[in-house]
Design brief:
- The complex is a heterodimer.
- Chain A folds into two domains: 2-99 and 182-336, Rossmann fold; 108-181, no CATH class.
- Helix content of chain A is 35%, strand content 25%.
- In chain A, β9 and β10 (241-247) form a beta hairpin.
- By secondary structure, chain A is of the alpha/beta class.
- The two termini of chain A are 34 Å apart.
- Chain B folds into two domains: 7-230, P-loop containing nucleotide triphosphate hydrolases (Rossmann fold); 251-267 and 274-339, no CATH class.
- Chain B has an eight-stranded mixed beta sheet, sandwiched between helices. Chain B has a four-stranded antiparallel beta sheet with strand order 2-1-4-5.
- In chain B, α4 packs across α5 and α5 (165-177) packs parallel to α6.
- Chain B has helices at residues 58-65, 92-98, 119-129, 135-148, 165-177, 195-212, 223-229, 247-252, 257-265, 305-309, 334-337; strands spanning 7-22, 27-43, 47-51, 73-80, 83-86, 102-105, 183-187, 215-220, 232-237, 240-246, 315-319, 322-326.
- The chains are: A alpha/beta, B alpha/beta.
- At the A-B interface, α7, α8, α9, α10 and α11 of A face α6, α7, α8 and α9 of B.
């Protein structure tokens, strides 16, 4: 079982610095990405989901750094500490794309408009697989496009991004990410910019990668529906912490953190009709520069006590795979019943 | 809604085509048929949801009701207090007045508020225009409006950058309400908001509807939102309405294959509800060169020969006493009416 863990993140702290202020974006995040499994990271905007993804690839902005914690990548038999590599060093550049690939949210801006799609895929192939001649590289890029279900791939290979539709651009992005057969695929809200019927196609594609290539997938989303369909494991994030982490069945049906519960109650669920009661999470997400002292969710929480105001709850394990950051999780689950 | 509901807005044959101009002489090459032959009745006091994928013409349709864009054809008969008039025949002044009964809430709460004006200044403009001359009165009205949308009265002196997305959207709603409209067009009013905030705004919209006897035309791409808020739902595809029915009927027994596929594509946050997905091939075709026959036929899993050549009619059905509309050659009512 241990060998299934491809990326192991422990107690990760990332701070951003601006104008002599410090934004503690990530405050001790721990999770595993496992081979052939999908980890979904959910949370509202600004909770640090994308930063988590970018940190794994060391794609952080200039004035930021990993303060504490570790990111370990299991490359065959070798263990690589990603957090200790140089941001633009040779080793890091080799890891990006070849071992860990990322798909960004917006396919319109992530592709370069002045190069053909095929050229951009081959850029990646030449970088990571030396000794390929042009013909072999072309065949490889066409093959990866065809695998993503793009019709007439030879012709599409020579076309520019503007000639592609939104869904096809996202497929091209995935084709690019998968062209070097990475072990880990990080998808940062891959379908937010797409329509439901198209995003269903993309999700089928990602699931196929998971089962056929045993790719480890980290899927970032804000949609609980996507979590229910795609995830094997879920991490719920709030203000730079994973507040609840566990198997998808456990988190969705036995949620122990008040925030997870509140989030699930606030979304309209298809099939429940007009009489369903929506309970918005009260209050607002706090200012990241002026955070609550203890538990970040404390000002909006119904179960909050004095203890929560002063101390951040530690990771409390319910069972081997399920942890929650809440002092009162017993009460929360009792209350729900 | 047992007795015959009153029609507030009757739209017949609505068409909005945009010309594509090319070359030195700007000759018209082709038309984007953004909205093509849409018939729709909006009843007083209902919430009518319009759903569809991006580019299907739902926003254009919403804007065309307010006459915010040049319309190619059709009639928009609105039941004003002093009789039924066609919105397209009104002159400029009359249109201005009509806009005090029809209002719109836009999608993006960041670009629809002027960053250089305080909330009071933005909200007082429509009041001045529609005859509230006394400043003290305006302060009173705006304070009341802000309280209606659950914001403190004191916020009226603030500027948009001091507000979060959800608050801004509520200010947008307050602005629409300021002139006491009857019909509010919500163009993707909650799409840009986070889920927890979205719930606040949805609840607010429901509350305001009862308090102010409003009618909503709710344009969105999110079917679970529509199911929560709408009484009836119209599904648009490539500038046409392909199905219209009461919300419960549409979600329980969709008639049109596109509606079926759309419903099956939505991820549901409930592990108990695993369903079979109907995969759709390819993308939405270009509205410049729509496919021959039924616009949905290239992606339709139930496509027949006739669909490729002949446009299906927009037909009326009656199932268990409630009326519904759909345009498809292959509609089997037997499995619906048996239920």
């Amino acid at each position: 079982m241990i060998n299934d863990i491809v990326v192991k993140v422990r107690d990760l702290h990332v701070y951003f610095y601006t104008n002599q202020r410090c934004n503690k974006v990530l405050n001790g995040v721990s999770f595993d990405i496992k081979k052939g499994k999908t980890l979904c990271v959910v949370g509202e905007s600004g909770c640090g989901k994308s930063v988590t993804a970018n940190t794994i690839l060391q794609l952080l902005p200039e004035l930021s750094r990993i303060e504490k914690g570790s990111i370990e990548y299991q490359k065959d038999d070798q263990l690589i500490r990603i957090d200790q590599l140089q941001k633009n060093g040779k080793q890091m550049r080799k890891l990006r794309g070849e071992d860990i690939a990322i798909i960004f949210q917006d396919p319109m801006t992530a592709l370069n408009p002045v190069y053909t799609v095929g050229h951009q895929i081959r850029e990646m192939i030449f970088e990571h697989i030396p000794n390929l001649n042009k013909k072999q590289a072309f065949e490889r890029s066409v093959k990866s496009l065809a695998e993503m279900g793009i019709s007439a791939p030879e012709q599409r290979d020579r076309e520019y991004p503007h000639q592609f539709s939104g869904g096809m651009r996202q497929r091209a992005m995935i084709a690019m990410a998968m062209s070097c057969a990475p072990k880990v695929l990080i998808a940062d809200e891959p379908t937010t910019a797409l329509d439901v019927t198209i995003s269903a196609q993309i999700f089928d594609l990602i699931n196929e990668l998971k089962t056929q290539h045993e790719t480890a997938i980290m899927l970032i989303t804000h949609n609980m529906g996507v979590v229910a369909e795609m995830a094997d494991e879920v991490a719920v994030m709030y203000m730079g912490n994973i507040v609840e982490y566990g198997k998808v069945e456990d988190v969705l049906t036995q949620a122990r953190h008040p925030y997870t519960r509140a989030l699930l109650r606030s979304i309209p669920v298809l099939g429940k009709g007009k009489d369903q009661v929506l309970e918005p999470v009260r209050g607002m997400t706090p200012d990241p520069f002026n955070r609550p002292k203890g538990c970040q969710f404390c000002p909006r929480c119904d179960f909050a006590t004095e203890l929560c105001e002063n101390k951040m709850p530690p990771e409390t394990f319910i069972d081997e795979n399920h942890y929650v950051r809440c002092f009162h999780h017993e009460e929360v689950i009792k209350h729900a019943k | 809604m047992q007795n015959k509901p009153e029609v507030l807005l009757r739209i017949r044959g609505s068409k909005t085509h945009f010309a594509i101009k090319k070359g030195v002489l700007k000759k018209t090459q082709a038309f984007v048929k953004a909205v093509d032959d849409v018939d729709l009745d909006v009843y007083r006091g209902e919430t009518l949801g319009i759903v569809g994928e991006s580019g299907c013409g739902k926003t254009t349709f919403g804007k065309s009701i307010l006459q915010l864009i040049p319309i190619t054809g059709g009639s928009y008969e609105y039941a004003f207090k002093d009789g039924i008039k066609d919105l397209r025949t009104l002159n400029k002044k009359e249109i201005d007045n009509a806009r005090s009964t029809i209002q719109i809430v836009f999608q993006d709460p960041y670009s629809s508020l002027n960053p250089a004006m305080s909330i009071f200044d933005q909200l007082q403009d429509p009041l001045i225009k529609f005859g509230v001359k006394n400043k003290k009165e305006r302060v009173d009205i705006i304070g009341k409006l802000l309280e209606d949308v659950n914001l403190p009265r004191e916020y009226m002196t603030r500027y948009p950058n001091e507000f979060s997305g959800g608050q801004r959207q509520r200010i947008g709603i307050a602005r629409a309400l300021s002139v006491n409209p009857e019909l509010i067009i919500c163009d993707e009013a909650v799409s840009a908001l986070d889920v927890s905030i979205q719930a606040q705004v949805l609840k607010l919209l429901k509350k305001l509807k009862d308090e102010h006897q409003l009618t909503y035309l709710f344009i969105t791409h999110d079917l679970s939102v529509v199911e929560y808020i709408a009484d009836r739902v119209a599904v648009m595809y490539l500038g046409k309405i392909v199905e219209l029915a009461k919300t419960e009927d549409l979600f329980a027994n969709p008639l049109h294959p596109y509606t079926k596929a759309l419903l099956s594509a939505i991820p549901i946050a409930d592990l108990a509800q695993k369903k079979k997905r109907i995969p759709l091939q390819g993308d939405v075709p270009s509205p410049v060169y729509p496919p021959s026959g039924c616009p949905f036929h290239p992606r339709c899993p139930e496509c027949m020969e006739i669909c490729k050549t002949q446009k299906p009619e927009y037909r009326r059905f009656e199932v268990h006493g409630s009326e519904r509309y759909a345009s498809c050659h292959k509609i089997d009512l037997s499995d619906v009416s048996n239920k």
